[in-house]
Structures are given as C-alpha cells and as structure tokens.
Design brief:
By secondary structure, the protein is of the alpha+beta class. The chain has seven helices and 14 strands.
Length: 265
C-alpha cells in the first residue's frame, strides 16, 4: 500500500500506550499498526508551507515558508522563549491569536525525557506537548494565567534544571534511575521566587506515559531527507515525534513538516 502527500507532525492520543496517527495528504495513518513491518519513505522533491500552502525551497520552524515564519504568531520568538511574550501588554504579531493562545492558562512542568527538564506549555496542550518531547514522567509545578508569567518562572528554574531534551538519551530510553520527580518538584517549589509562589501547584499528580516501542536504539542515527531522499527499514517503534527503525535509525517527522512524500509498506 502507498500513501502520497504532504507530511505533518503526528497526532497523538494518550491511551495505555500512546496512539500515533501520521497525516500524509488527506490520509491519517495509524502508525502503531505498522510496527514490525518494512516501510519505505521517499521525498518526492517538493516542500510546501503548512500554513499558507506555498511551495518553498526550505522549511522553516518545522513546516513554514520564510514569509510565514517571519510573520506568523505561531513562530514568534516567545514561542521558544515564553518569558518574552508581551501579549499581556497588548503587544503581539496577532492579538486575537494571542488572546486565545497566550492569555490563557499555562503550566510550568518537570518532565523526564532521558534527563530531567523544566518546560512551559498551554494547559490545553497537556499531555500532547509532553508526548511530543518523549517524556515518560511529568508533574506540573505551577499554573499561571498567561504565557509570560509561566516563562518568568521557567527562567528562574532554569538556573537549577535543564530546559533541553537530550534526543539521544530520550530515544535510547534512558531510565530515571535515582530521580524522584515528585521530590524534584518539591525542591522546585522552594526555588521559585516568592512573588510567584501563589502559582505553585500543591497537589502532586504524576503522569506516566508509555510509547509503542519494541526495541530502543543503542546509538541513534538520524535519517534526513536533505541528505538522502529515500530509505526503507523495519519500523520498531515510535517515541516523541520520531519513527524508530532497525539498525538504530530514527526519522524526525515534525522536522520534515511540509515535505511531499511517499510512504509504502
């Protein structure tokens, strides 16, 4: 069977094990059903902006043409650095979008993604954001009424916790040996600037996430369409936004947003 079309990030559903659907053109493929099968992925040479549909020579910020990357609210600097968000001051690339996405409840969280990290996301993105990062354990530290406040708290905590995901450790399934994430949350509460302590979440709700992976790679080898336009292999798992193949190879679906591809099995 063959599917042809523009690819975008996998959609997820948190069940006992995360369910993944891969959008290709008008199709939504349940990727869990393909584990154990040989799959061929081929880039057909074109890239299209996921926002405006224009053909582009290069994908910016996971699926945008340069114009959309430069002007879209979804790609503003505060998306990567929430402390820079100025929507609460009435400043944004698109205030209507910001009212719906920045001036809403956000959470500051700790997640184990092969190492412990602190992060920020909209409450409506829980647990999607955690799944996309390949987190196996998460706990919410604070809830704030807007993105800026969550970012300010995150900046304080970045002095003590990393804010990056180590992709190799995440994909090779580094275990949280010796790390008690609830205890780390307690310590984080003691580190928050006192003027933001009202946003601290006292309840301890531990989220655990399992992924459909039969075997984890030992030494991650990234497959990139910009270097090779086709490859095939046996799909052995899915974690984060990565397809995991035999021989330690992984394919970052989200990075290739907008690529026109063929998938066959």
């Amino acid at each position: 069977m063959e599917y042809i079309g523009v690819i975008s990030k996998m959609q997820t559903n948190l069940l006992d094990v995360v369910e993944y659907k891969l959008p290709i053109g008008d199709s939504n493929i349940i990727v869990n059903n393909l584990i154990g099968k040989e799959i061929k992925l081929k880039w057909l040479g074109n890239i299209y902006c996921l926002k405006c549909g224009a053909k582009t020579r290069k994908s910016f910020f996971q699926g945008n043409c340069y114009n959309c990357f430069s002007t879209s609210p979804e790609t503003a600097e505060c998306i990567l650095r929430p402390e820079l968000c100025e929507a609460h001051l009435g400043k944004a690339r698109d205030m209507k979008w910001s009212e719906e996405n920045c001036l809403t409840e956000h959470v500051v969280y700790l997640a184990f993604t092969g190492g412990l990290k602190v992060g920020v996301t909209r409450s409506t993105q829980v647990p999607t954001r955690w799944i996309d990062q390949g987190a196996t354990e998460t706990v919410i530290i604070a809830k704030t009424p807007n993105r800026h406040l969550a970012g300010v708290i995150e900046v304080d905590l970045k002095q003590y916790f990393s804010d990056k995901t180590n992709i190799n450790k995440m994909l090779s399934n580094q275990l949280s040996l010796g790390i008690d994430i609830l205890n780390e949350k307690k310590e984080a509460g003691e580190l928050i600037n006192p003027k933001y302590i009202e946003y601290f979440v006292k309840e301890d709700e531990l989220y655990k996430i399992k992924y459909p992976v039969s075997t984890f790679p030992e030494k991650v080898k990234t497959v990139n369409f910009d270097k090779e336009n086709e490859f095939s292999g046996i799909l052995i798992g899915i974690k984060g936004q990565y397809l995991i193949f035999d021989n330690d190879r992984v394919f970052n679906v989200r990075k290739h947003g907008g690529y026109n591809v063929s998938l066959s099995f």
